[in-house]
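Before drawing any conclusions, I looked closely at one protein, both as residues and as discrete backbone shape codes, quoted below without any editing:
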Amino acid sequence: MILHTLLDYDVLRVIWWILLGVLLVAFAVTDGFDLGTGTLLPFVARNDLERRVVINTVGPVWEGNQVWLILGGGAIFAAWPALYAVSFSGFYLAMAAVLLALILRPVGFKYRSKRESAAWRSGWDWALFVGGFVPSLIFGVALGNVLQGVPFRFAPDMQIYYEGGFFGLLNPFALLCGLVSVAMLVMHGASWLTLKADGAVARRARSCGLVAGLAVIALYAIAGGLLWTYVDGYRITSEVITTGPSNPLFKTVAAHAAGAWFANYAAHPWTMLAPAAGFAGALLALLGLARRWERATMLFSGLSVAGIVLSVGASMFPFILPSSIQPQASLTVWDASSSHLTLFVMLVSSAIFLPLIIGYTSWVYKVMWGKVDPADISDGKSHAY
């Protein structure tokens, strides 16, 4: 109870905003290369054995990597219930598409090699491509819409209403963000394949990674330029009460404030480290791919992924989900969280279980380290996919 007293409500709110960012970054960096690998599958492997090599680079770890997505969804549900209500209802069809695509992955992994039929295996290979490409695209499109504001409002009784449609999410800026996400994860997946595969697969992955890395730098720069000139941000215009009740309607917000998403960078220059890491990581990954620095390339691409994701959070703080039709209803760190006690209990639980998850995941990577050997797959004696 002493710790509960010491951790003020505003402190816990910021801690959980940071933890949510950590979970999203962990998902993007770990499961991101799984998604990128799936997207690359039809393009880096030319025969059945090569495709099995690609699949087996991620086969032992993809389930553990996806835990971070589950943890992120659980954290949103418990720590930011209003955010969960708006995003999972407003983006329902998009989330359903992501879910269906993600379901294809375990089914594809398990059933692809159960039959010798070339048509059967080719069909599942393309299913694994869909399972990698579709989530990569939709997650980026979702972030693009969040930066522009989402059409939701609160009624006087605090009932939430979403006024948008699925195709409204597919606007030019959001699609650009989706392409940034796809290029970023393809680069990350290619870096993983150069680390875990060998021979022709690694060579083709290296070539794809070089193209994807250049696309990341160009598309991320274009998105940043449009965010400055075309996509206006949001700004709180009333007094900011950091320990007040979770009621978004207690504030006033200026919508479409030019340059608002860059205000945090001007006020806190250290936040520039996030976009700098996004660009620098991609440039270093390109250098690593060209020089065949396998481990370093994986670290550099992960740095780029983390920097790009963190740059969104750094620019938007304290906003979590702006409203384009009722700016006052925009959700922020200070007015969209659960209660003080709920956040504290969740923090204690996270302090216990997160180290266990990290420890187990690290152990799995250690056990499964090393390149995938085609001979071990083709001998028929292993448990490979």
Observations:
- The radius of gyration is 22 Å.
- The mean pLDDT is 90.
- The longest helix spans residues 9-44.
- The longest strand covers residues 253-257.
